[in-house]
Every structure is written in structure tokens, then in C-alpha cells.
Design goal:
Shape: globular
CATH architecture: 3-Layer(aba) Sandwich
Radius of gyration: 16 Å
CATH class: Alpha Beta
CATH superfamily: Gcn5-related N-acetyltransferase (GNAT)
CATH topology: Aminopeptidase
Largest sheet: 7 strands, mixed
Distance between the termini: 29 Å
Order of helices and strands: EHHEEEHEHEEH
Strand content: 25-35%
């Protein structure tokens, strides 16, 4: 599995992830295609300017243009004016259950730890989203409690998790190898 920056050609993957009732069940239902296309354009610009990390998940052996989902890290201002970093992810149904989301989130957290600018990273999966809450738990996020979050002009009931990059559990194999190599030198 690899991660690559989002690009304008990812419109169909964005539409599949955000306009499908099953994919969006935990996020208040499907979004209008026009809104999803506008979101893609914004994500491409924001990622190119390095204001967010919008990454597409490319499975091993993928054909050109094939993606399994997306993971994104961004900074936003909360109601109280405090800026915080948030991570979110989606994996298309045919790729779910393979550990791709967990691996992608881990890689982004590894990169955020190396980068140093993101600070604590928050995640807000729906309270009933067992797989995403399981990823948070497995990667060492700390559950702060439930909260309501605005998403796509809707209010969602979520579990509010937080982790400090570098303190998350189970770094990816590349990081583990690098750490082991640096210990032996």
C-alpha cells in the first residue's frame, strides 16, 4: 500500500466515497455530487499548498488510477477559536477489512511526527462506527468522550479521540526498521 497526493483525476473515487449511501451511512448520508466535486477541487489546492495532507490510498498491485480510499490531515479552528489538527479516512467497500485504513492512518501519523507542525491530532468517527473507532483504539488514540461535530451541513454524534504523533502505537514497518537501524549504529 502506498499513499499519494490527491489530484483532479480522483473525482470518481471522491464521488464513490461521498455520494454512496452505504459509504456515508455514518456521516449523515450521501452528499450532492456538485458539493463533492467542489471539495475535491479545494483539497487539491490545499494539498498542493501544503495546508493539508490529502492522500489517496493505493493498494499493492493497483492498476493506474486505482485507489482504495483516502486519508486526510488538516488544521481547523474550533468554536472557541483554538486551532487543532484532525484526521479522517474512508475506504471503499471492496477494500475494507484488509487493514488499509489502519496502515494509512499510521503512515500519516508517522509523517506528522517527523514533520512536527501538527500537534495533537484529533479524530471524530461516528459513535456507531466500530471499524474507525477500532483504528483509533489500536493506534493509541485517547478517547476524550462523545461530541457533536458539523460535517457537510449536518451535525453528527461522534467519539472524540486524540493522539500525539510519535506517541501513537505500532509505527509502520519503515519507521520500525529506521528506529532499529539507528539504535545499532
Amino acid at each position: 500500500m502506498m499513499l499519494r497526493d490527491v489530484r483532479a483525476g480522483d473525482v470518481e473515487a471522491y464521488v464513490r466515497m461521498r455520494c454512496d449511501p452505504v459509504m456515508m451511512a455514518e456521516l449523515g448520508g450521501p452528499l450532492p455530487r456538485e458539493q463533492v466535486e467542489a471539495r475535491l477541487r479545494k483539497d487539491v489546492v490545499e494539498a498542493a499548498a501544503d495546508r493539508c495532507w490529502a492522500k489517496m490510498i493505493v493498494p499493492d498491485g493497483a492498476e493506474d488510477g486505482e485507489v482504495a480510499g483516502a486519508v486526510m490531515l488538516w488544521s481547523q479552528e474550533e468554536e472557541d477559536g483554538v486551532a487543532l489538527s484532525e484526521i479522517g479516512w474512508m475506504v471503499l467497500p471492496e477494500y475494507q477489512g484488509r487493514g488499509l485504513a489502519k496502515a494509512a492512518v499510521r503512515r500519516v501519523l508517522d509523517a506528522a511526527a517527523a514533520d512536527g507542525r501538527w500537534g495533537p491530532v484529533h479524530a471524530n468517527p461516528g459513535t456507531a462506527n466500530g471499524p474507525s473507532n477500532g483504528i483509533c483504539r489500536a493506534l493509541g488514540f485517547r478517547l476524550l468522550g462523545e461530541r457533536d461535530v458539523d460535517f457537510g451541513d449536518r451535525v453528527l454524534r461522534t467519539n472524540h479521540w486524540v493522539v500525539v504523533p510519535g506517541e501513537h502505537t505500532g509505527p509502520g514497518p519503515e519507521v520500525s526498521r529506521a528506529r532499529n537501524e539507528s539504535r545499532t549504529e
